[in-house]
Amino acid sequence: MSIPDYQTCMRPLLSLLDNGETVKLATIIDKVADHFSLTEQQRQELLPSKRQTVIRNRVAWANTYLKKAGLVNSPSRGLVEITDLGRKALQDCPDKIDISYLQKFPSFQEFSQPKQANGDQPKEISQQFIDPVERMETANREIQLSLAQDLLEKVKSSQWQFFEQLVMDLMLAMGYGGAIEQSGKPTQMTGDDGIDGMINEDKLGLDKIYLQAKRWEKPVHRPDIDTFIGALTRKGARKGVFITTSKFSDGARQAVNGLAMSVVLIDGAQLTQLMIDYNIGVNIRQLFHIKDIDLDYFNES
User: How far is CA 8 from each of CA 27, 61, 207, rounded to the nearest angstrom?
Assistant: First the structure.
């Protein structure tokens, strides 16, 4: 089965506490995963932010909502135990416990329907089956994907001279060449087999990386990579980067395997992701900060 949503985790979590023991939340997470027979791959699956596993996030939110309703208690950080209301909930709900059931409890109503300062009607907590952090991360991922598509189209419509400079700017932003002027520059030479630029890998210019930038719609095939490798060989180069706005064929990717030199291939999707990561051609429109309790402030371990 797929990884259960946080509401589906509620009753199994509560049932695991029915023996009256106080249990670590980390232990509960593992036992909920066992309950749903999750594979090791599912247990290790991460949220889009890559900072937490999906199952841990969902069980933690299930625990948070059960706690707000008074069905579980946390005697100290990281520990969970069932309450009398929790035992009654197991009797009332033999199949499932969800947000609709939790709305029956005054403490959860107060949590999910805070009074509005402007007199508006209180807004109920979302009924979606994805927890709040995951909703934000999923929405951010959708925004990033849309941005990447728009960014790639913008790059494809640019002049070739602009594209070559963009590639240089990106390499510099990634830390190649340091902050030294002229550490990277496009080439205007003939007979270079299409080598479009050179950048110093280190601040002293002891090692150089040669670049080829292709603003193409058609896929890059093996002959194109072989030509680039030949140009690198004639220059005695050890490192090269081939960047395109399109894709590489399987043959093109195979061409860089087993070489005495290092050749990196960057396609359109990876290019735009790197531009987003290093703020090339994009601006930060808005920031959202997810805050948690500072335990150091309260002198808790």
Answer: 18, 11, 56
Consecutive 10-residue averages of pLDDT for the chain (301 residues): 92 95 94 96 90 91 92 89 96 93 89 56 51 77 81 90 90 74 47 73 77 94 95 91 96 94 95 94 82 70 51
Residue 286 lies in a domain: no
Q: From CA 60, how far away is CA 31, in angstroms rounded?
A: 13
Report how many domains make up the chain: 2
How many helices (H) and strands (E) are present in the chain, helices listed first? Answer: 12, 8
- Same domain for 106 and 158? no
Stated pTM of the model? 0.61
Inter-residue contact 69 to 85 (CB < 8 Å): yes
Residues 106 and 211 in one domain: no
List the beta bridge partners of residue 213. Answer: 243
Sheet of 23-24, strands arranged across: 23-24, 79-82, 72-73
| Shared domain check, 259 and 158 | yes
Q: Which two tokens stand for residue 138?
A: 């999923």
Q: What backbone torsions phi and psi does residue 262 show, to the nearest 5 degrees?
A: -105, 120
Domain that holds residue 17: 10-113+126-130
Pair 155, 272 in one domain: yes
| CATH number of the domain that residue 88 is part of | 1.10.10
Residues 6+ apart with CB under 8 A from 136: 288, 290
Sheet hosting strand 262-266, strand order edge to edge: 184-186, 197-200, 208-214, 239-244, 262-266
